[in-house]
Amino acid sequence: MEAKQIHTRAAVIHLGGLLGWVIPFSFANLIGVLVLWLILRKDDPFIDDQGKEAVNFQILVSLVFLVLGILGGIMMVRHWTGIMGWNGFPFGRVYGWKMAEIGFWGICWRIVNLLNFIFCVIAAIRAGQGIAYRYPLSVRIVR
């Protein structure tokens, strides 16, 4: 297999993380990268290396989305039921406070989604050029 094909396949694996933009509120970002890596990893060591990087980063992104989803669910239940938090903090029932919590959650969700998009695109460009990319803040779970 020629180098251009190898680099293109590595770039496609990185772009598999963007599947979460097409199918939101799922683990499509992780599943897409994982399936592509498992199919293509035996073709070349560069593809295997970049696939591991992409899988590790998407595991981190999925965990962050899971935590944000749980927190968002808790905030929505608090909002719908009117349960006061913070040991009876007097402003806990004020509508604006609860909407601020939900707004903060939404901003965090969008930031993580945007960072995932940016890092996946950068990784795909680098891999397409034949440069091994290492995601920032990524935990090496798959070795």
Short synopsis of the structure:
Helix content is 71%, strand content 0%.
How would you explain this protein's 3D organization?
With 143 residues, the protein is mainly alpha-helical. The chain has one domain (3-128). Helices cover 71% and strands 0% of the residues. The protein has five helices and no strands. The radius of gyration is 19 Å and the shape is elongated. 25% of the residues are buried.
Order of helices and strands: HHHHH
Task: Count every beta strand, where a strand is a DSSP E run of 2 or more residues.
Answer: 0
Percentage of residues in helical conformation:
over 70%
**What class would the helix/strand composition place it in?**
mainly alpha
Number of folding domains? Answer: 1
Low-pLDDT runs of 5+ residues are: 87-92
Dominant shape: elongated
Proportion in β-strands: under 5%
| Mean pLDDT rating | 83
Outline the biggest β-sheet.
Answer: none
| Separation, N- and C-terminal Cα atoms | 24 Å
Radius of gyration: 19 Å
Helical region count? Answer: 5
Topology overview:
Layout: H1 3-15, H2 19-22, H3 28-40, H4 45-81, H5 95-128
Give me some keywords for this one.
single chain; 143 residues; mainly alpha; 71% helix; elongated
